[in-house]
Structure formats: structure tokens, C-alpha cells
């Protein structure tokens, strides 16, 4: 069946496939789509259409789901296979918690570590998913409640730590002044956060008090895309110490890391600069490092690149080995391009890329993208801005006032202004979960989702529901201790080419740079424009002064040295553009042949160019490489032109 409509059609059974810890891959990857926010809904036309839907070709085989992304502008479609899907109509974090997170908790009491992280673009709902609101608690408070009730039953002790990783530095959020934490390796290769606070927690009210103070210390900013955008990765660690059996006096320790990752950002869209650009480069870099670690784990690669970022280095003891991890890929239903980027990276982590199983061809939408159509689409979309695409996406002329557009000027103005408090309106008050819990555990409003919804709608909840205990509401599957965890990562060779759309916005690009695209045909077409502008330097020795153009501006050639300089500059810019073209179009193997590009960099480039083709070498800096790395890479490639043989030949010619 060809999926024509973009609406989310998710049979309940598909949304809620419970996680079985005994038979999942080491890192489970699920999708959560947030609902449209009020300012994203056009006043007249009712609900906008989501660009994300799910279809399981075989409802009986529920090991994974096929997530579809459709660009409402171009009808381009992408498909990815992931472990589970929670659509926007299922806007209750409790079901994600019960199906995906609570199965990880019993293992903590037997010494296992686990990690849950929310991953996604800025504004896609990561913080909401992890923290929740006063009325709808997120995965963090829900997990804490469950852990506390299990502690009561088992005589275990729970302690929390809360820290952030900001521009590759680690800060203790439970300390006044957010003290920087030093990361140390011990002789066994274990990583320690020296001096990180650990606060004992005996009740939910204690937790809410301590945690909400930490939330206020976390670095956030108004980026123009999200009013309260997290600029750091926030890690809540719940450590549990359980007395060993018998009189041995041993203590079993396990911990759960609950991570609200900073948002993946397309710098072309955010117009980031200064500190924002640095933050965002580091964020993107560390998210990519995290995805590499997950991929290595899921593919049983011999080397897991934990040391590529501070976050993965810190999480080393909770990712891989006997630990379990869950990636919640958060999506904004109105952002196609951004969702493709998130889901493709999530799917890449799981190492299941786009594919159409041949037996299901009739049931699944076409996922191979026609190159010609792609080219046409790309050409048509040139010059379109993201917000224009978004307006089109809703299929109606939405009054501009009803759409929340990035406020670039305000983002710029606030570039150095951190707001170390949470937005009380949408992200929860500065003391989150107040009124949600009492010292015994959860109150009614967070125990029953129906009650939550009712309360949010202003309905009164029956007094007797306050008596419901947490234990009665959460059923934790018992995880056998001796069970081997099986990796069920599926591989497929069929992959789909992704969109080459390059959005040119907020960047002043001359015609030459704007023209770059990952498609050779385009590049050729563009070269004509380029040639026309290039005005090849006419060397007329007898003419003392010649006007010519180097790159996109005219210069005056008056001396042979000027000519030489103009020519070198033109040669350099052609070479650089050629190099960028190669980076955008070469296969992974070809990339590896280029001097200065190793396996990791090749993967990095291949990943990033899928959604954001490079436009110039400086784009490499924007995605996190240092200018030195870019310089080295290019100069190595340039030097490679004069390889040994050519060098000898050149020397011969010169002599
Ligand atoms: N499920 C949801 N229901 C209602 N509102 C939501 C939901 N998810 C997110 N939101 C709202 O969407 C906005 C963005 O969400 P949030 O701040 O959680 O995004 P984020 O992914 O953490 O962004 P960033 O990476 O910039 O910090 C917030 O106003 C939030 O209240």
C-alpha cells in the first residue's frame, strides 16, 4: 500500500510494543513525535498534517516499526526502521515509560547500569519528554518514583547526581555555582567524575526539591527557534545501592543515567554565531560521537570510540557491556528536513538504514528516490527559505502571525545572555512537579494518565484516586539475571538517497558558492555560471593594466606579480570548490582515498552531507572541525596533487 497521506496512523498495538530486555539490541532506538504546539496550528485550517507516520508491514511481527517521513512540499518520502513508535496522539509519557524505561529499572538493583537519552533537533520535545510538566511527569520523575518504591521494598538506597556537559566541560548542577568537575581515569580504565555531588533521596518531594534547583542552573538560551533551548547535555544519574544477600556485607550498585541531550542544530537555520556557533558545533560533534558509539555497540565492532567526546567517555560504564540503553528520538511533526536528519541518525545508530524488504514491497511506500525528480525538486527549491517551506507544508496560506518564526535578530541580540531558569509557561515552573507528588510517592495526577488529561482539561479528579500507589500502577517485568542479551540489529544493503536540498538562508553567499550542490548535474550547470563569471585572466604582457575578476569581484591586473597572484587565487578557489564538490559527491571509499580523510571523518562527512551538503570548506568548521583540521585536510589534499612522480617531473622541468 502506498502511503499517500501524511497523517500519523498508528494502530495502538504498534505504538506500545513493550521492550523485552532479554531480546533487544544493546541500544534500543524509539521515536516519539510531539504534538503541534498552539502557535504551530493555523487558526483557520485546524490541525496541520504531520510529516511523520508509521506503518508496520506485518502487524504480527512487532520487533520493529517502519517510520515514514514525507515532505509535504515535494511528496518525497523516506523510510526508516526503528524499534518502536509513539505518535503525537499518544501524548502521554507514561506509556513510553512503562513500555521502554521501567523494564530497565530492576537490573539496577542487581548491579546493572542503564542509560536513557532523548535525542533530536532543537525544539523537538526532548526536555519535555525527560522532565515533563507539573501535570504530566516525564521519564525522569517517573523513573525516580519507580526506583524509590523499589528501594522501599528492597532496603536499597538511592542517590542522585545531576550534571551538564557544556562545550566539552562537565559542571555539577547540584552545587551552587555549578562547579566544574574533573574527569579522571583510574588504573582499570574506569572513568570518574571527581567531586561530583551525590545527594541521598528518600522521597519524591526530596527529589523534586533537589532536581528543580539543578534544572534552574542548567544553561539555556533563547535561540530564536526555541525560547528555552538547552545548550548542554543534562545528565541525571540515579544510583542505587542494594545490600547483598546473606551476611556478607556486600553492596550491589547500579545506576540509571537519564539524559536530556542538547538539540541537534542546523546552523544554516539558526543563524548561530559567536558562542552559539561554538556551542552548536560542539553539540553536533558530540551527538555524532554518541551515534558512532551506539553504532559500534550495536554492530559488535571491536573498537567503540568512547573517547571521541566527553559525554561518551563519561558514559562508558553505562553504554555497552551488560548495560542497556534507550535512545528516544524526538521529532517535531511539522519539520520534515529536521526529522529526516534525526531519524536517519537514529537509524544509523541502530544500523538499520532505509530499506524495503522485498516481500513487503507492495505494502510499503516507495523509498527509492528518483534522481531526476530529486534534481528537479532541488532546483525548484533553490532560494526557498525554511519558513517558506514550512508555510507550504501546512497546505494553506497561514497568516504569518500564527507561525512562530525564528527571530534571528533577537537570537543574535541575546547571544551572550543565558537564562539559567526554565520557562515557567511551557517547560514547567522553576519548581517542577510541585503538586504532583507527595512524600509517599506519586499523587493521582501522575499515576493515571486519564486523570492527568482530565486535570489538564480542568476536570476534577476523584479523591479516592489519590490513594493509588505507584507499585499498583507500574508492573515491572522480572529480568532473569543469567540471561545473555541478544543483539538484534538487522542490516540491509538497500539504502535510499536522501534529499540534496541545501537551504541557503542567513548566509551571504556569492553566486559561486551558492551554486554548489551535491549533484554532479547541478555542479555542471553551475560551472557554466561560474565560468561565465570567472573571466579567465587574459595575460596581455603589453597591456599594462587589465580588468579581470577573481572569484566574484573585479581586480586590476597591472604587474606580472598581480597576474600571478590573481591566477593563484582563482586556482585556489577552483580547487577548493572542486574539493567541496568531491566531499559532497564521492562515495565513502573515494573519500577514504583523499589525503587527510580517515574512516571517522569519511563517515562524518557522509552523514552530514545527507541533509546539509557542504557549501564551502568553512562549513566543515561549522560542523565541528577546527580550522586547523580543515586546513590540514585541504593542504594535504592539495599537496597530494604533486605526488612523488609529479614532483620529480616538476623538478626536471624546472632544471
Ligand atoms: N508532548 C508535548 N506536549 C506539549 N508540548 C510539548 C510537548 N513536547 C514539547 N512541547 C513543547 O515544545 C517546546 C519545545 O520543547 P522542548 O523545550 O522540550 O524541546 P527540546 O527538544 O528540549 O529543545 P532544545 O534542544 O532547544 O532544548 C516547549 O515549549 C515544550 O513545552
From TrEMBL:
Keywords: ATP-binding, Microtubule, Motor protein, Nucleotide-binding. This is Kinesin-like protein. ATP binds at residues 120-127. Residues 1-16 have a biased composition (Polar residues). It comes from Populus tomentosa (Chinese white poplar). The keyword Electron transport does not apply. The keyword Nucleotide-binding applies. GO terms for cellular component: microtubule; microtubule associated complex. GO terms for biological process: microtubule-based movement; mitotic spindle organization; spindle elongation. The lineage of its organism: Eukaryota, Viridiplantae, Streptophyta, Embryophyta, Tracheophyta.
Amino acid at each position: 500500500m502506498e502511503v499517500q497521506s501524511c497523517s500519523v496512523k498508528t494502530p495502538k498495538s504498534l505504538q506500545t510494543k513493550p521492550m523485552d530486555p532479554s531480546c533487544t539490541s544493546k541500544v534500543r532506538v524509539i521515536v516519539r513525535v510531539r504534538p503541534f504546539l498552539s502557535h504551530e496550528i493555523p487558526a483557520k485550517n485546524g490541525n496541520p498534517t504531520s510529516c511523520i507516520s508509521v506503518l508496520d508491514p506485518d502487524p504480527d511481527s512487532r520487533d520493529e516499526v517502519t517510520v515514514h517521513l514525507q515532505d509535504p512540499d515535494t511528496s518525497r518520502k523516506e523510510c526508516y526502521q526503528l524499534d518502536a513508535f509513539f505518535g503525537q496522539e499518544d501524548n502521554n509519557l507514561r506509556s513510553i515509560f512503562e513500555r521502554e524505561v521501567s523494564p530497565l529499572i530492576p537490573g539496577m538493583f542487581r548491579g546493572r547500569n542503564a542509560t536513557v537519552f532523548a535525542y533530536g533537533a532543537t525544539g523537538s520535545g526532548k526536555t519535555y519528554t525527560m522532565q515533563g510538566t507539573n501535570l504530566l511527569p516525564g521519564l525522569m520523575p517517573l523513573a525516580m518514583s519507580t526506583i524509590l518504591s523499589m528501594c522501599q521494598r528492597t532496603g536499597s538506597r538511592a542517590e542522585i547526581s545531576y550534571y551538564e556537559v557544556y562545550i566539552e566541560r562537565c559542571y555539577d548542577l547540584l552545587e551552587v555555582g555549578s562547579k566544574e568537575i574533573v574527569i579522571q581515569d583510574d588504573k582499570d580504565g574506569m572513568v570518574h567524575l571527581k567531586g561530583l555531588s551525590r545527594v541521598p533521596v528518600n522521597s519524591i518531594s526530596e527529589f523534586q526539591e533537589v532536581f528543580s534547583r539543578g534544572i534552574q542552573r542548567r544553561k539555556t538560551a533563547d535561540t530564536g527557534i526555541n525560547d528555552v533551548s538547552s545548550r548542554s547535555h543534562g545528565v541525571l544519574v540515579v544510583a542505587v545501592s542494594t545490600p547483598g544477600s546473606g551476611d556478607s556485607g556486600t553492596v550491589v550498585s547500579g545506576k540509571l543515567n537519564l539524559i536530556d541531550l542538547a538539540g541537534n542544530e542546523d546552523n544554516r537555520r539558526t543563524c548561530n554565531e559567536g558562542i552559539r556557533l561554538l556551542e552548536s558545533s560542539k553539540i553536533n560533534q558530540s551527538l555524532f560521537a554518541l551515534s558512532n558509539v551506539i553504532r559500534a555497540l550495536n554492530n559488535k565492532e571491536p573498537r567503540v570510540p568512547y573517547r571521541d567526546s566527553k559525554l561518551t567517555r563519561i558514559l562508558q560504564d553505562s553504554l555497552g557491556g551488560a548495560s542497556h540503553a534507550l535512545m528516544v528520538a524526538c521529532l517535531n511533526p511539522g519539520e520534515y528536513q529536521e526529522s529526516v536528519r534525526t531519524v536517519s541518525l537514529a537509524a544509523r545508530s541502530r544500523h538499520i538504514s532505509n530499506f524495503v524488504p522485498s516481500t513487503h514491497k507492495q505494502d510499503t511506500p516507495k523509498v527509492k528516490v528518483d534522481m531526476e525528480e530529486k534534481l528537479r525538486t532541488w532546483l525548484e527549491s533553490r532560494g526557498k527559505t525554511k519558513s517558506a517551506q514550512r508555510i507550504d507544508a501546512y497546505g494553506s496560506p497561514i497568516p504569518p502571525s500564527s507561525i512562530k518564526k525564528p527571530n534571528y535578530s533577537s537570537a543574535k541580540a541575546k547571544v551572550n545572555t543565558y537564562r539559567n531558569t526554565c520557562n515557567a509557561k511551557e517547560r514547567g515552573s522553576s519548581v517542577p512537579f510541585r503538586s504532583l507528588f507527595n512524600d509517599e510517592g506519586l499523587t493521582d495526577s501522575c499515576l493515571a494518565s486519564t486523570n492527568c488529561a482530565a486535570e489538564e482539561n480542568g476536570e476534577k479528579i476523584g479523591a479516592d484516586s489519590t490513594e493509588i500507589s505507584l507499585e499498583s500502577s507500574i508492573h515491572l517485568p522480572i529480568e532473569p539475571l543469567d540471561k545473555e542479551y541478544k543483539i538484534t540489529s538487522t542490516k540491509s544493503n538497500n539504502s535510499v538517497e536522501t534529499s540534496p536540498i541545501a537551504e541557503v538562508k542567513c548566509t551571504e553567499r556569492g553566486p559561486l558558492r551558492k551554486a554548489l550542490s551535491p549533484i554532479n548535474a547541478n555542479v555542471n550547470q553551475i560551472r557554466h555560471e561560474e565560468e561565465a563569471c570567472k573571466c579567465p585572466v587574459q595575460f596581455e604582457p603589453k597591456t599594462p593594466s587589465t580588468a579581470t575578476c577573481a572569484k566574484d569581484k573585479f581586480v586590476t591586473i597591472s604587474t606580472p606579480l598581480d597576474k600571478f597572484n590573481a591566477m593563484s587565487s582563482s586556482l585556489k578557489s577552483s580547487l577548493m570548490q572542486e574539493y567541496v564538490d568531491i566531499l559532497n559527491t564521492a562515495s565513502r571509499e573515494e573519500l577514504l582515498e583523499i589525503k587527510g580523510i580517515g574512516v571517522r571523518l569519511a563517515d562524518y562527512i557522509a552523514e552530514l552531507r545527507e541533509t546539509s551538503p557542504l557549501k564551502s570548506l568553512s562549513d566543515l568548521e561549522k560542523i565541528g572541525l577546527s580550522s586547523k583540521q580543515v586546513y590540514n585536510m585541504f593542504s594535504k589534499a592539495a599537496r597530494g596533487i604533486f605526488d612523488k612522480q609529479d614532483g620529480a617531473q616538476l623538478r626536471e622541468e624546472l632544471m
